Amino acid sequence: MENRLKTGVSPMAELPEPEEIDVANVLQSFLDSSIDLICVLGPTASGKTKYAVRLAKEIDRLLAEHETGGSGAEAGRRRAEILSADSRQVYRGMDIGTGKDLSEYDGVPYHLIDIADAGTKYNIYEYQRDFEKAYRDIVSRGCVPILCGGSGLYIEAATCGYSLPDVPADPVLRAELEKEDTPVLIERLAALKPLHNSTDYDTRKRLIRALEIAIYESDHIVDRTHFLPKNTFYIGTLVSREERNARIDRRLESRLQEGMADEVRGLLDSGIPAEDLIYYGLEYKFVTLYLTGQLGYGEMKEKLAIAIHQFAKRQMTWFRGMERKGICIHWIHIT
Fold first, then answer.
1. Are residues 121 and 70 in contact, defined by beta-carbon separation less than 8 angstroms?
2. E-assigned strands of 1-106?
3. Right CATH number for 2-163+226-240+317-333 from 3.50.80.10, 3.40.50.300, 1.10.3720.10, 3.50.30.40?
4. Assigned CATH topology for domain 243-309
5. pTM of model > 0.90
6. What is the pLDDT of residues 233-277, one digit of tens each?
7. Helix, strand, coil percentages, rounded to 5, for the chain
8. Measured between alpha carbons, how far is 178 from 1 in angstroms, rounded to an integer?
9. Contact assessment for residue 295 and residue 289, using Cβ atoms and an 8 Å cutoff
């Protein structure tokens, strides 16, 4: 089993056993301060946003019942609110490609979506800061925070109290690093800091950012965040690899029909450089390559589908890695 978990070769054996979530018990744990955050996580196309909304509405119903002894106005103020943990939904104007589907929230308040301009490079330090501000606001109003997303690094930054450096982006250095082969970049990073695991270099974009931070820290005194970890109840959304890939393919076709290429064309026409959109990866990378004539439509669609499949697999690998570090995730099947 351990080997299968590490490799993720078998489509079914890698899936953990699903559980039934007693929402009333989870809510009571929050009310008595046994937990202070609920987190819904899962790979792309696993139904996590729909489940988080359903969960929020059930919590609202239970809160209303719980507070029937208080005034109606008081009961109306206490409710569940969702904080996004999606590294690309933070950008305004990047809607179809990131699958914001804001109508899915169906009246449930949401946070950390549309908070940065497309073309900028919002980073994990900024996310942790913005999450903490939104989280404290929700809790201060007596409401229940639900973190929802698939960006594992963002989820861990929000829940595990990581101390993160405030290091500005350096476009000139990044351009220089982009010219180097990946093994050379890893070697340079290893010369500057201990590499305890592959987190810093599991994607080229993350590797370049890690090296950018390490180079900056070698010459500067850097401020770091100091937030306490959250006592989090994690819920993971399960779907088989076959079904997940089928959903990804259907969703990609739908997004292309909805005008994803037009969305990216509009971003380019607004003055955002092609290389900045390519930096965001997946839909924005491959559609930009298509629009700039570097890929044909069919080739773009095929390569993008494969890239999203691979991304979803990496997400599951990250979440199983969280479990190996001692984080308990309660996995559920979405019906």
1. no
2. 37-41, 80-84, 91-92
3. 3.40.50.300
4. Helix Hairpins (1.10.287)
5. no
6. 999 999 999 999 999 999 999 999 999 999 999 999 999 999 999
7. 55, 10, 35
8. 38
9. yes
